[in-house]
Write a structure and sequence with these properties.
The chain is of the alpha+beta class and 472 residues long. The chain has 3 domains: 187 residues, no CATH class; 76 residues, no CATH class; 144 residues, Histidine kinase-like ATPase, C-terminal domain (Heat Shock Protein 90, 2-Layer Sandwich). The protein is built from 11 helices and 11 strands. It has a 5-stranded mixed beta sheet with strand order 6-8-9-11-10. A 4-stranded antiparallel beta sheet has the order 1-4-3-2. Helix 6 packs parallel to helix 7 and helix 7 runs antiparallel to helix 8. The longest helix is centred in the N-terminal third of the chain and has 52 residues. The chain starts with 7 loop residues before the first helix and ends with a strand.
Length: 472
Amino acid sequence: MRLLPQSLFGRLLLFLTGGLVVAQLLSAAILLQDREQALYHAIGGHVAQRIAAIVKLLDTLDETERQRLVTALDLPPTRLSLNLPWQTETAPDERYHTTLFRALLSRQLGPDRPFQLEINDDLLPPPPPPAERPRWLAPGPPPPRDWAERPPRWRRHAMMLGLRNFVVQVRLRDGATVTFQQVLPEEVIAWPVRLLLILLVLLVSVAVLAALAVRTLTRPLAVLADAAGELGRDIRRPPLAETGPLEVRRAAQAFNTMQDRLVRYIEDRDRILAALSHDLKTPITRLRLRTELLDDAPLREKFQADLDDMQRMAQASLDFLRGGEDSEPIAPLDLNALLESLQEDAEDTGREVSLAGTTCQPLRCRPLALKRCLTNLVDNALKYGQRAEIAVTDTPARLTLIVRDRGPGIPAAELERVFEPFYRLENSRSRDTGGTGLGLSIARNIARAHGGELTLRNRPQGGLEAVLELPR
């Protein structure tokens, strides 16, 4: 999936953080539900006791004293009214807090006391206090009559608890009706900021610890990948440190063992190639000396031409087998000076090489190997395309050199095959040109030994261009 991070660290961190967020959200939902039920128990029990106490007190008073007491107790958040019409309950409310509050009221009022209960989030707030109420009893400005006029945060809090207003009507002993309308205060129905802050701190701390743990686990993989990439450029790089957990130590040991075996293989191969080169040069030299003793000049020239071909093919084959890997150390190279030198050498022989672009800083490479790679590409361009054009593009991450010619190009199906050892095109790149079919193979081996790549492509306007990309 394109939305997933590309790195292992990013994916593990995404999965762990996502799981933690889901777990914290579920925990918060459970905690809020438990808090809601605890609030219902606490608030419902307190309100039920207060209603029962007021009802028992009103039963003992006459109508005048009863009205006076109701006026005195009619204060937010509980509003009292006398002799309002008895409301018949329409449909039973099966919500948890309704059933709980009904049971608490029945326990406090007694089984023989008739009462009606209605809990409705959309109930209008109670009417403002009467005008004749003493000023010291009036708790500030009256609440608005329209629920929609209240600030949005009140409505959000009400939605959270599912309980904003409720009305209880109770029959007194003499048949009168007392109505209690309860409005929960804002601090009761407000979000538990402290609890949510604790959950947020817990989530952040666990996410940070998860990120550190994932980074610790994935860092050895990044180190191993970097070491594998450097191994292609420098087979004799320092071995990996064999530290850390058991699996990391085993991977480092296996990598170091592989590197040591590769170094020994290359050293053995170099010794074999050196011996083979010496053994081939000796008989060729003896044949040259014997050829000089021939009296027949035409025959002598043919022998010398064959010996030249043998020596050139043997040297090219040995260079290809070395694959650009030799004991030459890596050093900074002024590529601008190297390209100018190649240009001057070509102009001395009457051929044309043009340069476009420069490098910003020296390139760390094997100078002699890279010079041979570029020489092969320039020679091919001059041999089959009359002239060579070299374009240089330098970036902080990669150096790109493009060698263009104006020759006939190469069929698309042959663009990769020409890199095969001893492969030559039948017509334009035949044996008559003096090539052995190893120039491009050696050039690509040198490019890959530096961690780069060499590719060929045909130009739309005609000709061929070789693209050499080298990492910085």
